[in-house]
Each structure stands twice: as C-alpha cells, then as structure tokens.
Specification:
Elements lengths: L1 E2 L6 H6 L8 E5 H5 L5 H4 L2 E3 L23 E6 L22 E5 L4 H10 L6 E6 L19 E5 L5 H11 L3 E4 L6 H6 L2 H23 L3 H6 L1 E7 L24 H20 L3 E6 L1 E3 L8 H11 L3 E4 L5 E6 H14 L5 E4 L4 E3 H15 L11 E4 L14 H7 L7 H14 L1 H7 L3 H9 L3
Parallel strand pairs: 1-2, 5-6, 5-8, 6-7, 8-9, 9-10, 10-14, 11-13, 12-16
Antiparallel strand pairs: 2-4, 3-4, 13-15
Helix pairs in contact: 4-11, 5-7, 7-9, 10-12, 10-14, 12-14
The structure holds nicotinamide-adenine-dinucleotide and thymidine-5'-diphosphate.
The site of nicotinamide-adenine-dinucleotide has 31 residues, from helix 4, strand 6, helix 7, strand 9 and strand 11.
Length: 449
C-alpha cells in the first residue's frame, strides 16, 4: 500500500507511474479536505469499502478521538479515470486495426515481423527490446522516422517500465518474442535464459494481467497476448516417430528449451487461472534475413563466403524442420487475428532435413553466387565435437493451423535458402556490424575445442 503524510505533494504522488488498477493509497483526511488533490485526480480514486460513489473523496470526519488527522484508504479505479486513453473504437470493427506491443522486436524474427506488419496501415507498433547482443536496431533502419512505429529500449523484466508502457500506449495486443534464443549459449551459461525467458515472461504476464483487468469488458474481449515459442519444448524424436503435434507432452532437453517450456506453462496458467486471452505458437527452426550469425544457416553462409571451416556437430545427421522467417511471421499474424484464445498452434515448414544436407546446399549456392575458391566449398566441412545433449530430430505437424486457420508456408526450402544466401552476400555492412566485438569472442571461445 502507498501512503502520504500531511503536507506531502499528494497530487504528484497520485499521478506517479507506480499507481495501478486496484492499488491502495492511504490519504490523510486533511489532505483530502484541503483539496491538495485536484478534482480531476480525485476522480480516479475510490474510497475503500464504498460502492462506486461519484464523489469518492468526500470524507465526513477528518479527526479521530485524539484530534489527529485520520488516514483514509482509497484505491485507484481505472474505470473512473477518464484521462486514460481507451483502445480506439475502430478496433472493435476489425481486430487487425490495432496497436501492438512487440517484445524483442530488434531480434531476428521480431524485426521481420515488424517490417511485415507495419505494411498494414491500420497497425501501429511499439517495440520493447533490451538490445542484448542479439538485438540490432539496424534491422529496423527503414522505420527510423515511421509515424506508426516507436522503439523503447528496456527489459521485459522491468515491471515499472512495462506498466508505464501499457498505461500510456494502451495496446490491443502483445506479441512476445523477447528471449535468449541460442541453445549453445544456454549450455555455456543458462542464467540469462532463466532470467529473461522465465522471470521476464512472468513479469510481462503480471503487468499484462493487471492492465487487462483494468480495461472495459469490450476491450478485454478484444485483447490478445501472443507468446512465441519453439518446437524444442517437445524434446527429441526417433527417426520413425510421428511429428510433434499440439498434444505431444513437453520434454525439453536443453536449458533453452526448458526455459521456453516454463514460459509456455506460465502463459497457459494465466489463461486457465485468470482468463487472460493468450495464444501460444510453437515453431520449428527459422532461417532468413537478419538472423544473428551464431545460428547454423547464417554461420555457414558467412564461413563459406570467407573460405573458413564449416563446423558440423557430431555426424551431421541431426534433423531440423526449417521454415522461412516471413512465413513464420505470417503464421503469427494469422494466429493473432483468428486463433482461439487458450489454444496452441504448431508452425512448421514440412521440411525436415539433416544438417549436413543444409550445409552442402549452402556450399553449392555460395560457390555459384560469390567468387570461387580454389576448391569447392564442400571441402570446408569439418565434423566437430557434438553439442552436449544434442536433440536428434525435430519435426512439426502443422496441420492444425492449416485446417483451422488456413495458414501454410508459401516459400519452398529451395527458394527460401537461395534468397537467404543472396541476402547475406549482399549485406556486407550489416554483417560487418554484427560480427565485430563480442561476436568474435563467442566464435573464438565456442569453437576452440
Ligand atoms: P533473437 O535472439 O534473434 O532475438 C531476441 C530479441 O530479444 C533480441 O532483440 C534481444 O535484444 C531481445 N531481448 C532479449 N532479452 C530481452 C529482455 N529481457 N527484454 C527485452 N528484450 C530482450 O531471437 P529470435 O530468433 O528472433 O527468436 C524470437 C523468439 O522466437 C524467441 O522467443 C524464440 O524462442 C522463438 N523462436 C525462435 C526460433 C528460431 O529459429 N530462431 C524458432 C522458434 C521460436
Ligand atoms: P541452431 O541454428 O543452433 O538451432 P537449434 O539448436 O535451435 O536447432 O542449430 C541447428 C542445428 O545445427 C542443430 O542441430 C545444431 C547444428 N549446428 C552445427 O552442426 N554446427 C554449428 O556450428 C551450429 C551453430 C549448429
């Protein structure tokens, strides 16, 4: 509970960002009587224990038996606060007429999502990103002066910041990408993964719940929280196992997968317990432009370009299901618009391939698109020590999203990988930017043994 003392600047206090729906404030009766709090601000608070009185600050007695000023309890009532902007009316006619809070929008998938969705004139976007090593504002250079796009640097675990953003911006939806996302980093140092993926998601959910509770019934109905997750939560498949479906039990094997699984469970629980309108998508491995070159495909493209060794873990026969990032972003937009709340949707490319096959394709494409080396780039392939606990196979059954929402990938792997290789070869400045400093250090340490 917050409280003021006689003579304290009550108005400034009551206006502070830390006051949220249902928050109790203890005012002293003489502050109230002397109208230190203007009528406009008084109208936002409701006397504890009283039904919605329109003059909530009326206090009958301002002294107790000893003659000292009596504290009086009020709480902040979002519904009485007329100064707070409402979700614009147009939203009620078309769900996609909306302001979206995107978390982690400076990363690989988030920036592709923003660039794609901002094309729709009825969408405006606030991008909350901490800018870790994986966040790169260059991805969004083309939106620098865009009137429907706002960037806010910050951590999803910073509850005061998230609260203020929600109160000020009044988004109709949240699309939650922010995460630590690289399995190898989670093996070397899992702590950040627990902090952002679990604690950060928890903080975001708590603030979202509080914000959503304060919306009108109609706004609550329209609001959506979409959580972006991964196929890795399902664990590893044997060669002849059926692909993961939405009913496959969770069996995460890496610290990354475990932290994402934990966040998925929290999101589910917030729907089941509090009725928060959530949607969860679990997607297979993405590839495309703006992916940080620590992940398989961009790492191999750049090493192949430069004639460096191509480090394939183990026997190279681990299988992943690859999806072009723009297809993933369209799937997310489809789920946001048409998905049923409380449901989860698997997203995949129907495109299982062993790693070695991917690396060989990249070698051939780079040979064809950039200056030839003395020998074919396939000669650069080097089998290195396997990743500990390396999942053997992932495969996604994406038939539910196709059947219920009509989404299926547009890009074939052949066309998507060609575009991707071309993109990395043509964006030298972007590559130079992200491969300086801490990136070099990661590559040197990680591939040392
Ligand atoms: P990424 O690592 O490229 O980007 C993550 C972004 O989140 C970065 O911009 C980073 O700065 C930001 N971020 C990290 N911690 C933050 C924090 N505490 N507060 C605010 N921002 C923070 O990741 P990506 O590949 O774009 O993945 C995005 C999401 O999609 C993740 O949740 C990931 O688990 C999921 N996913 C990724 C893939 C894939 O193949 N890349 C597949 C399925 C699901
Ligand atoms: P990665 O891109 O890290 O994605 P994830 O681990 O989330 O699937 O790795 C994709 C596959 O490529 C995975 O089986 C590990 C393998 N891999 C290598 O063989 N060598 C590498 O240098 C990297 C980064 C990954």
């Amino acid at each position: 509970m917050l409280s003021t003392r006689n003579g304290a600047p009550v108005e400034a206090f009551a206006k502070s960002d830390s006051v949220i729906q249902g928050q109790s404030l203890k005012f002293h009766a003489d502050d109230v009587q002397s109208r230190r709090l203007s009528a406009a601000w008084q109208a936002r608070f409701q006397r504890k224990g009283k039904s919605a009185a329109r003059s909530p600050f009326r206090v009958n007695s301002n002294q107790n038996s000893s003659g000292r000023a009596k504290p009086v309890l009020f709480y902040y009532n979002r519904k009485l606060d007329r100064s707070r902007p409402k979700i614009p009316k147009t939203l009620r006619n078309g769900f996609f007429n909306m302001k979206i809070l995107v978390t982690g929008g400076a990363g690989f998938i988030g920036s592709n999502f923003i660039l794609q969705q901002i094309q729709d004139e009825s969408v405006s976007i606030i991008n909350l990103d901490k800018l870790t090593y994986a966040g790169n504002l260059r991805n969004l250079d083309s939106l620098a002066d865009h009137k429907r796009y706002t960037f806010v640097r910050g951590d999803i675990a910073d509850r005061a910041l998230v609260r203020r953003l929600l109160e000020e911006q009044v988004p109709a939806a949240i699309v939650h990408f922010a995460a630590e996302s690289h399995v190898d980093r989670s093996i070397r140092g899992p702590e950040e993964f627990i902090q952002t993926n679990i604690n950060g998601t928890f903080a975001l959910l708590e603030e979202t719940r509080s914000y959503w509770t304060g919306l009108s019934a109609e706004e609550r109905d329209h609001f959506r929280f979409l959580h972006v997750s991964t196929d890795e939560v399902f664990g590893s498949l044997a060669p002849n196992d059926p692909a993961f479906s939405e009913r496959t039990p969770y069996a995460p094997n890496s610290p990354y997968a475990a932290s994402k699984a934990a966040s998925d469970h929290l999101v589910r629980a917030y729907h089941h317990t509090y009725g928060l309108p959530v949607l969860t998508t679990n997607c297979s491995n993405n590839y495309g432009s703006f992916q940080f070159p620590e992940k398989l495909i961009p790492l191999m493209i750049l090493n192949a370009r430069d004639g460096k060794a191509l480090p394939v873990y183990g026997d190279g026969k681990n299988v992943r299901d690859w999806l072009y990032v723009e297809d993933h972003c369209e799937a997310i937009a489809t789920v946001l618009r048409r998905g049923a709340t409380g449901e989860t949707y698997n997203i995949g490319g129907w495109n299982e391939k062993p790693n070695i096959e991917i690396v060989e394709m990249i070698c051939d494409l780079v040979d064809g698109l950039s200056p030839r080396l003395g020998a074919p780039r396939r000669d650069l392939i080097t089998f290195v020590k396997d990743r500990p606990g390396h999942d053997r196979r992932y495969a996604m059954d994406a038939s539910k999203i196709q059947r219920e929402l009509g989404w299926r990938p547009k890009e074939t792997f052949e066309s998507g990988i060609r575009k991707t290789v071309r993109w990395y070869l043509e964006h030298d400045e972007w590559v130079r930017d992200v491969t300086s400093g801490s990136y070099r250090q990661w590559i040197t340490t990680h591939y040392a043994d």
